[in-house]
Amino acid sequence: MSAVTGDGESYSLDGVQVKPPADSNENFALGIDVTTVDSNGVTSDSQQTSGTISVEVASVADEATIDAGDITATEDAGAIALNLDAAVGDTDGSESITAIDISGVPDTVQLSAGTDNGDGSWSLTPDQLQGLTATVDGDVSGVFDMSVTAHVLDADSDSGGDDTIATTKDFTLTINPEADGVSITDGSASGNEDEWIAVEEPSFTLSDVDGSESINAVTITGIPDGAELQLEDGTSINVSGDSAEIPMSAITSTGESSYTIAGLEVKAPCRQQRKLHPGCRYHHHR
């Protein structure tokens, strides 16, 4: 009775609180019974009166649980599974995920579902999140910081006080570079023994033309015993076994992603007069 206060005529119930069931926004009513006693010191009489206390519960949306881990793939890997998932924690049926946003998506990445908003974000329905993949443009590599946002609605059917909340989780899509092949146009050389012979310049073109790849080594192979190599300015090229590495200073550009060996000369072994067809091996990296 410590919670009941009054002046002898009117009374109130003070400081009493009620907590609704977890995750429920359903309104409910509590019953209240008040018992009064009339006593003259010898006899007494009591009467019980009943009433109700209406409790209106406003909805409060809970954050979604999002599963979004970092993804690593190799350049030109095709469709990459993003393994994204989102779920509501409220199981009474009043909450639902109404929309999914994915942001930080570069122009070079296309998602398998949803709408590209043109500003680096994509809008999806909850169903489209399942099995979502990303396809990266050819010859593109890098680290892309992205995020997924789930929008939750807690619908309040008996009072109309709907509530919403958005939950965001970051993840990273890493695309590792992979060097592509080189297209080679063979060169040739023809001349007299004991003389330096100019090599018809072999050329080679990078398959990846986005600027991320470069040549870092060129090796001539199949050099016969006793043959010598030099550049036209007299720079000697060391021959080891049947191969020689060409100085990078002799590698010149002939156009976009195309190169050649400038000024290469070869001297055939003594007592040998024939066409020489050494091979080229090119090393490039990203």
Main CATH class of the largest domain: Mainly Beta
Whole-number radius of gyration? Answer: 40 Å
Residues in β-strands, percent: over 45%
The count of domains is 3
How far the N terminus sits from the C terminus, by CA atoms, comes to 81 Å
Could you give the count of β-strands?
A: 26
Order of helices and strands: EEEEEEEEEEEEEEEEEEEEEEEEEE
The third-level CATH topology of the largest domain is Immunoglobulin-like
Overall mean confidence score, pLDDT: 82
Basic shape: rod-shaped
Q: What are its keywords?
A:
mainly beta; Immunoglobulin-like; 6-stranded mixed sheet; 286 residues; 3 domains; 49% strand; rod-shaped
SSE order and pairing:
Layout: E1 4-6, E2 11-13, E3 28-39, E4 44-55, E5 65-67, E6 71-74, E7 79-81, E8 85-87, E9 95-103, E10 109-111, E11 115-116, E12 122-124, E13 133-136, E14 142-154, E15 163-176, E16 182-185, E17 196-198, E18 203-206, E19 214-221, E20 228-231, E21 236-237, E22 244-246, E23 251-255, E24 258-261, E25 264-267, E26 279-285
Parallel strand pairs: 6-15
Antiparallel strand pairs: 1-2, 3-4, 5-8, 7-13, 9-12, 9-14, 10-13, 11-12, 14-15, 16-18, 17-25, 18-24, 19-22, 19-26, 20-21, 20-25, 23-24
Region (Disordered): 1-24
Protein name: T1SS secreted agglutinin RTX
Organism: Magnetococcus massalia (strain MO-1)
